[in-house]
Design goal:
Structural class: alpha+beta
CATH architecture: 4-Layer Sandwich
Shape: globular
Number of strands: 16
Bound molecules: succinic acid
Strand content: 25-35%
Radius of gyration: 18 Å
CATH superfamily: Clavaminate synthase-like
Distance between the termini: 34 Å
CATH class: Alpha Beta
Strand order of the largest sheet: 1-2-3-14-6-16-5-4
Number of helices: 6
Order of helices and strands: EEHEHEEEEHHEHEEEEHEEEE
Amino acid sequence: MKLTKMAPRCGVEVAGMQLATCSDDELEQIKQAIYEHGVAVFREQNLSPDEHIAFAKRWGGIDINQYFPLEESHPEIAVVRKKADQETNIGGAWHTDHSYDQIPAMGSILVARELPPEGGDTLFAHMGAAYDSLSDDLKRQIEGLEAFHTADHVYKEDGLYAQTDMGKELRGQDMKTGAVHPVVIRHPQTGRKLLYVNGGFTIHFVGMTREESLPLLGKLLDAAVLEDNQARVQWQPGTVAIWDNRTSWHNALNDYQGHYREMHRITLSGEALAA
Ligand code: SIN
């Protein structure tokens, strides 16, 4: 098994192993690499849906996404699909999955099923590098701060997706979500300090209104996506990416209008987050 960094501060490409048949020892090495680098990419995997589920179960539980369409015969798999005649994609802005849950998902395993002829890459950003890049003054300001996260403004019947041509595809418009997490968390396995707010789901700091929160939140969100903190996944048939939602954010680029793209995602259960 060979690990090559995708970018100086984010992401690793893993060669020389098959996810469907990897040993426990290899799985442990993959986990450590993902905890540390935020995302790992594996080429030429050709995982069947059954193998995708079986591999995900080796990590622990599966968190079934409440909003995305599910694969009919394998409901553990969420379908991230954009049809050729749709304009809006799923996940097309910087976010980390499920931060609106009290116990956010640990990560996701995304399998490329059908790709556009060009485009449709996914960007990742490393939240440990983001935290490290903050000035001492900003670090002091966010020490001990908590933030409120929800998905209601995104998925509810009057939410962002409902205004778009993706609205009808999604489920869960009647769900209500909300969770408070520290703004700086310690990675449960590596102990590294990570910035844990995101543009998709973080609304305000605890004890402050949205308006009061926006200037500081804006500074943190800008620091998080500095180009130096990013890596880019260019998908090929058979590519699988596994990411850690605590260590990384992601953003699915929507630059392939007129073409179909379908990915299969399994979301892995996580644990409560602490400062
Ligand atoms: C997502 O899980 O947010 C979508 C990622 C992608 O489609 O590349």
